[in-house]
């Protein structure tokens, strides 16, 4: 079991986790247990060496603000909370082009957490992953 400290300074805080692509590109995603799919800002993915031509398909995604089109990319290796996925499909969206700015670069969704036991312990401010 791996245990990680979490910080939630107030009730409006978002749970942010560190993510590594290909063992060298580090960035931050919001842990979103309401998100079906992991979604990454296209700018981060391009900095990690992926190109527009690397997209394997497009999908329509329903959001609170309506339908958007996301590209799907296969990530060779992605590591978060001690969970490692190989050849993992992520949705990619250009946050900046759509006026979205934040302190994080996308969301880790349920697709990434499948197959793992993840416990959010808000009494002790810990995430436990098995």
Can you lay out the helices and strands and say which pair or pack?
Elements: E1 2-5, E2 16-21, E3 25-31, E4 39-41, H1 42-47, E5 57-63, E6 66-80, E7 83-93, E8 106-108, H2 110-113, E9 118-121, E10 126-129
Parallel strand pairs: 3-8, 4-7
Antiparallel strand pairs: 1-10, 2-3, 2-6, 4-8, 5-6, 6-7, 9-10
Q: In this structure, how is the largest beta sheet organized?
A: 6 strands, mixed, barrel
**The level-1 CATH class:** Mainly Beta
Number of helices: 2
Mean pLDDT: 90
Task: Give the distance, in angstroms, between the N- and C-terminal Cα atoms.
Answer: 5 Å
Strand order of the largest sheet: 2-3-8-4-7-6
CATH-defined superfamily: Acid Proteases
What structural class should be given to the helix and strand makeup?
Answer: mainly beta
Ranges with pLDDT <50 over ≥5 residues? Answer: none
CATH A-level architecture: Beta Barrel
Share in helix: under 10%
- Rg (C-alpha, Å): 15 Å
Could you name the CATH topology?
Cathepsin D, subunit A, domain 1
Order of helices and strands: EEEEHEEEEHEE
Structural commentary:
- The chain has 130 residues and is mainly β.
- The protein has one domain: Beta Barrel (Cathepsin D, subunit A, domain 1).
- The chain is 8% helix and 49% strand.
- The strands form two sheets. It has a six-stranded mixed beta barrel with strand order 2-3-8-4-7-6. It has a three-stranded antiparallel β-sheet with strand order 1-10-9, with no helix packed on it.
- Strand 5 and strand 6 form a beta hairpin.
- The protein is globular and about 45 Å long.
